[in-house]
Amino acid sequence: MNKEERIELANLLFPNITKTREYYEAMYPERNLKEGAMVTRFGPSPTGFVHMGSLFGSFCDLVFARQSEGVFYLRIEDTDQKRSIENGVDGIFNDLDSFEIIPNESSRVGGEYGPYIQSERTEIYQTYVKDLIIEGLAYPCFMTEEEIASIREEQELSKIKIGIYGMYAQDRDLSLDEIKKNLSENKEYVIRLKSPGNSKNEIEIIDLIKGKIKFPENDMDIVLLKKDGTPTYHLAHAIDDHLMHTTHVIRGDEWVSSIPLHVQLFSVLGFDIPNYAHTAPITKKENGNIRKLSKRKDPEAKVSYYDEVGIPIEAVKLYLSTILNSNFEEWYLQNPEKSYKDFTFTFDKMAVGGTLFDLDKLHNISKTYFSRKSGESVYNETLEWSKKHDIEYSKILEENKDLMIKFLSIEKDGPRPRKDISKYSEVKEEFSYAIDEYFVKEAYSKYDGDKTYDVELITDYVDNYLDLDVDNEEWFNKVKEFAVKNGFAGSPKEYKADPESFKGHVGDICEALRVMVTGRLKSPDLFSIMKILGKDKIKQRIELYKNNI
Q1: How far is CA 506 from CA 442, 484, 497, 503, 511, in A?
Q2: pLDDT tens per residue, range 179-191
């Protein structure tokens, strides 16, 4: 088919496409950004909830664009309308908003490079395909589903590559008259790429994470436009990445096998190829085996899980940062006043193989996050979370604001702040002794030891030795004085050296006090707790312990 015939065919197939690719090139000029600024995109399909893999991907897009003073945009890739779900787009925005992953450009905030929903860009894709028809790089294919299935069956039996290529691309060289005849008979068709590739040739790309990768050249005549004129993902993403001037395509390594096709599409369309960075899959250890984190099997794969259980979004992003760069965690621990926004992420510190999603590690990161927050901040954030998930407790918090802030502020100012909370939901559990109502209900059920403590001994101490107007050191010296007077060693070391000579040691007195006052063996600084409670309340709790042993 000569050029004149191809032009006639293009006009026949696309009579309503009057704009040219030059029109769109002018409509979407180069972005005015500083040198080195990255333009990244998150391109979800509205087919379900945002899962952890997608959240990680969007987080990568956000941090690399932000730190380079570039642009991070959100593009809804809804070319597969059959799989789209009701409110799918709203769900994507809501999930990202909940993690404060806010794009610079999107269908909600706007931007100069929209529409940011692919189903609204069909005319653009058809314009470029019309141009490919004219250039002899695309053609209408009238093969039926039955014919394609038959070819597939033959290829499977012959154990050769599956697809439409070479001799199996039956319609790639149809004449203009043959095409006109098929159209006059109202035969359905798709538009396929007329691949110039040869699988015996090799291409090479430099992946920013995986390094140099080599592939056979693509020779598949893949579908560009479906029967209804809508594009396939492969075509749409290439045109959009070009017109939106995406500099870095950061995506999961399940897309690695598509590189030859995508590189070829950029080439035949006359586009510069973006930088590729293929991230390792997020995996999970189960029964000694490693598998990919599953949105069907694993509740933690669903991003709403974290709000439900009360893990702060900032803690999740800190954990994602440890997945993103292997050197982040050490940096974070060494820089207590900083957040992930202060860290410079690089592609060379990203994992090449699988990245293990470790909930225990996430909880530890979250504990560090809480340890760096003021008592008032922890109170405010817990109150907000409780208003959504535990109305009863939110009312208790509001009624006891000053008291709770005091308890939550214990051991916050020292060089090693305590790390006893990893979730907002744990505040109620860990600090239940702060609220009389909860403490009475617990009736020492949280005590997991097997000792019975001497109530008379502790009563004597509280009545005659406890002074809450001193500092911590002086208080402890008084406890030691009381311990020695009552036959206890003044230190664990002294007791260990000659256990037969003592009833116990000073730590046993403190343990008895802690259990009676808090109902548990572990708590923040005991003296600070007692100062907040006051002597009268301490006595009440000793009496409560006496009535419950």
Answers
A1: 27, 8, 14, 10, 9
A2: 999 999 999 999 9
Percent of the chain at pLDDT above 90? Answer: 89
Please give the angle made by the CA atoms of 55, 59 and 63, to the nearest 5 degrees: 180
Would the pLDDT of 7 be above 80? yes
Q: What angle do CA 7, 261, 128 make, to 5 degrees?
A: 30
Q: Are strands 71-74 and 39-42 parallel, antiparallel or unpaired?
A: parallel
Burial class, 105, CB count within 10 angstroms (exposed 0-12 / middle 13-18 / buried 19+): buried
| Nearest by Cα to 138 from 263, 237, 273, 14 | 14
CA torsion 522-524-528-530 (nearest 10°) is: -30
* Element (DSSP H or E) covering residue 279: strand 275-279
Query: What DSSP string runs through 357-413?
Result: --HHHHHHHHHHHHHTS-HHHHHHHHHHHHHHH-HHHHHHHHHTHHHHHHHHTTT-S
Tokens of 377: 């901040």
Q: Within 10 A of 261 (CB to CB), how many other CB atoms are there?
A: 20
Complete domains list, the chain, with CATH: 1-137+202-280 (3.40.50.620), 291-371 (1.10.1160.10), 382-439 (no CATH), 443-548 (1.10.10.350)
Q: What integer pLDDT is reported at residue 84 of this predicted model? A: 67
CB distance 226 to 234 below 8 Å: no
CA distance 395 to 393: 5
Round the CA-based radius of gyration of the chain to a whole number and report it: 33
Per DSSP, what are the bridge partners of residue 76? 117
**pLDDT for the residue numbered 548:** 87
User: DSSP string covering 252-264, please?
Assistant: EGGGGGGHHHHHH
Strands (E) in 60-210, as ranges, are: 71-74, 138-141, 190-193, 202-207
Greatest extent of the chain over all pairs of C-alpha atoms, in Å: 112
pTM over 0.85: yes
- Whether the CB-CB separation of 57 and 97 falls below 8 Å is answered with no
Q: How far is CA 443 from CA 439, 446, 517, 527, 545, in A?
A: 7, 8, 11, 21, 8
Contact 195, 165 (CB under 8 A): yes
Spatial strand order of the sheet with 190-193 comes to: 138-141, 190-193, 223-225
Unique residue bearing structure tokens 């939550």: 408
pLDDT mean over 101-127: 96
